[in-house]
Amino acid sequence: MLSERRLEVLRAIVQDYVGTEEPVGSKALTERHGLGVSPATVRNDMAVLEDEGFIAQPHTSAGRIPTDKGYRLFVDKLAGVKPLSSPERRAIQNFLDGAVDLDDVVGRTVRLLAQLTRQVAVVQYPSLTRSTVRHVELLSLAPARLMLVLITDTGRVEQRMVDCPAPFGETSLADLRARLNSRVVGRRFADVPQLVQDLPESFDTEDRGTVSTVLATLLETLVEETEERLMIGGTANLTRFGHDFPLTIRPVLEALEEQVVLLKLLGEAKDSGMTVRIGHENAHEGLTSTSVVAVGYGSGDEAVAKLGVVGPTRMDYPGTMGAVRAVARYVGQILAES
To answer: What global pTM score does this model have?
Structure first.
């Protein structure tokens, strides 16, 4: 275990390196931070930190920079989440409050996160599998053609066309709409198949084929991989950090184009807590020079999706964690009120 003083030295190195982009020397540390010891003692502490793998010497520089292991210890032990100021919180609320639908909420969230953190922002759409049904609408487009509209508690709207095996009258349509909603509104998507399985039998024989077709379309909508929808923004922010990537930012950009990679980066939505993955903790080869800060958001206690940011390992972790957490909280409030 590192002594308290050496932890303080590590904290100071991380803060200085993030702020100045320059390797940090013992003289600078003693001048900028009230460590209460001589430069010689700080040099000795830095030697121990280097031996333990928490800091490293780049090239021939006299200074040191944090390693992935050093950042990990900083995040786990030394970094408090930096709270946003009142003006920042008001700005977030005002910006997100203007959203008109779920797509707008997600789009605004991406832009806001990218602006606040100056990193790449990634927002996952709310998952259908963790949502509940708010309403099912059925609209007649032609005698044998319907539109099914599924609305979730998170404001998500899914539309499907249904080609019926026979004409379906307005009276039958109203009857199906009423019976369907009475069974599924307010219920979890996972429960819907069981709730509607015997519904066709309650209709006249000539309507059962259409009712079964509508239900089949509804169930297909529930099981589609629509939860794998993401929005990404602020990619241009990476160009400001060109020197933070060993050779080029191209592998990072290529990795960010792969949706499966991004979903893995964000992690399981049911894990609503804050996750920070640093450098080589990211399994994808193109992202080993980046860090990911992600958190779940939702309309209640349970997360329905994840949002977060991707940036270089030389990141303002307390500020980034504070911004990500605050935005997730506001998005959750909007979904709860929608």
So the answer is: 0.79
pLDDT digits (tens, 9 = 90+) for 144-201: 999 999 988 877 788 899 999 999 889 999 999 999 999 999 888 888 899 999 999 9
Q: Is 177 exposed, middle or buried (0-12, 13-18, 19+ CB in 10 A)?
A: middle
DSSP state at residue 52: T
pLDDT digits (tens, 9 = 90+) for 47-56: 999 999 999 9
Establish how many alpha carbons lie within 13 A of residue 235's alpha carbon, considering only the half-sphere containing its beta carbon.
Answer: 12
User: How far apart are the C-alpha atoms of 47 and 217, rounded to whole Å?
Assistant: 65
Task: Please say whether the beta carbons of 27 and 63 come within 8 A.
Answer: no
| Whole-number Å distance between alpha carbons of 332 and 334 | 5
Q: Are 148 and 141 in contact (CB under 8 A)?
A: no
In contact, 327 and 307? CB cutoff 8 Å: yes
CA 250, 265, 91: angle at the middle one, nearest 5?
90
Q: How far apart are CA 57 and CA 328, in angstroms?
A: 37
- Which residue stretches of the chain are H helix? 4-20, 26-32, 39-51, 68-73, 86-97, 102-117, 170-184, 192-196, 205-223, 250-256, 259-266, 317-337
CA–CA separation, 186 and 88 (whole Å): 35
DSSP element (H, E) containing 311: strand 305-312
Name the burial class of residue 277, with classes exposed (0-12), middle (13-18) and buried (19+) by CB atoms within 10 angstroms of its CB: buried
Residues comprising the chain, all counted = 338
Among all chains, which residue has been given the structure tokens 């909508």?
221
Tokens standing for residue 6: 């050496």
C-beta neighbour count of 141 within 10 angstroms: 11
Please check whether residue 166 is in contact with residue 210, taking contact to mean a CB–CB distance below 8 angstroms.
yes
